[in-house]
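User: Hi! I'm a student and our assignment asks us to look at how structure tokens line up with a sequence. Could you show me two examples?

Assistant: Happy to help. In each example below, the sequence comes first and the structure tokens follow. Example one:
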Amino acid sequence: MPYLDRSPLLKCLRGMVCLLILVVTAKIVTIYVDYFPPNFSADFLIGRKPEFYGSYQWAFYTHILTGPITLIFGMLLLSDRFRIRFRRWHSRIGKVQVTLILLLLVPSGFWMAFYAQSDLTVKLGFATLSIVTGLSAALGWWFAVHRNFPLHRLWMQRCYVLLCSAVVTRVVGGALLTSGVESEWTNALPAWINWIIPLAIFEIISRSAMSQSALPRPNEPPPVAEAFRYVKSNESGV
């Protein structure tokens, strides 16, 4: 494991992030009472009645039902303890997770993107997010099938960061609303920063972790020294 993975600070940070995801996901689910049946006075459904009773409603309900499930499943699947202790369940849940993402969550999110009540910039932001999420899940599945588990984990971690864009959107939106800073520009901003910034942070941390894991561990000879000792032992006939 990379040194960063064993850092107490990073473990604490992961715990806080998991708690935030659970709290925000629970709050998202609690407002579903406005969606069954649809309450067009509720925030998200305001002004959507003309377009709702068509293909949009199927995409909408598919998206809001699968979203929380993939967030919870993803948290389990990225847990090293769960993966080591319950390998079969990790595989089974992983298959369900990829199926939900590729067949339900991503297509419904892509369809909903073009019904966003904003300009083309926002629609493209959400559509791009759907495409990148689907691509990450597909690559994660492909590497698992070909038993390249390091790359499998890396791509599924990227996928989960993208899934958490729903959480980031609520946090950023709440911060903008609380601060009273609202405009067309700030309304369009979350459609892009809710996944680009978290993904960029993840790439920085993962690359740092990989570079540290390549370093020799304490009391362990460097790779070059180890290779030199191996050659010398062969030359001496040992």
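Example two works the same way, sequence first and then tokens:
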Amino acid sequence: MGSIDIERHGRGVVRLVLNHAESRNAMGEALRGELLPAFEALLQDPACRVIIVTSALKDFSVGGDLSKMDTLADPKAGRRRMTSAHRLARVLLAADKPMIAEIRGYAMGAGAGLALFCDTIVMGEGATIGFPFPKVGLAPDFVIAHTLPRRIGLSRARQALLYARNFKAPEALAIGLADDVVPDAEVEAKAMARAMELAAFPSFAAALTKRMLELSHDAQAVLDFEATAQALCFASDDFREGVSAFREKRAPDFDKPVA
């Protein structure tokens, strides 16, 4: 049977480890059914400041579970499947905590989509991220047509999705699909270092920043939101601590919850 392991580390860093060996972490109903409550719980947990999404297997995720799709010829069944997948997608789109994808091996299709919900993607040198949907007669799903263009631009996303492109780690880094590429043996350490860096910053400001970036296509919406966001920040303990630390020429301590 598959499982998801939750590992808690210092400063509120949590590793969410996919471990569905029988399906190579295929993003089917079983894995999605575990991911939804796991993410919901972590995103509501004040002790969790940063989430690393990774795999206990040699691959991050091989994508959709084709072995379970032979029943989807009925449009109603297909619709039900997508509605189920969209519940998880909506939770991840609204996530207000920084998330990091730690990728070794293959991250394909919906597996790539899971990584694309993350703010930072760390890949091993031997890793590959790809979008094989046309090869099996499918259009992209898991909101990839939204998340991929926001990472690499509409033109590159168009080529990746229409031509079913795979990107090895160095090319992914070159086009902005990955943020860090390190030797495979160093992926976990690099992702953890990134997470600890994020955890040192105030989580309240990070949540507001993530929301603002989702509005980034609309300048007026950003102006409206930042007026409220910055006013809340000005009134926060984090702002007072940051200013005090600056004046006292010391590192700020944002570990305490915001009042």
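Here is something you could point out in your write-up. The mean pLDDT is 91.
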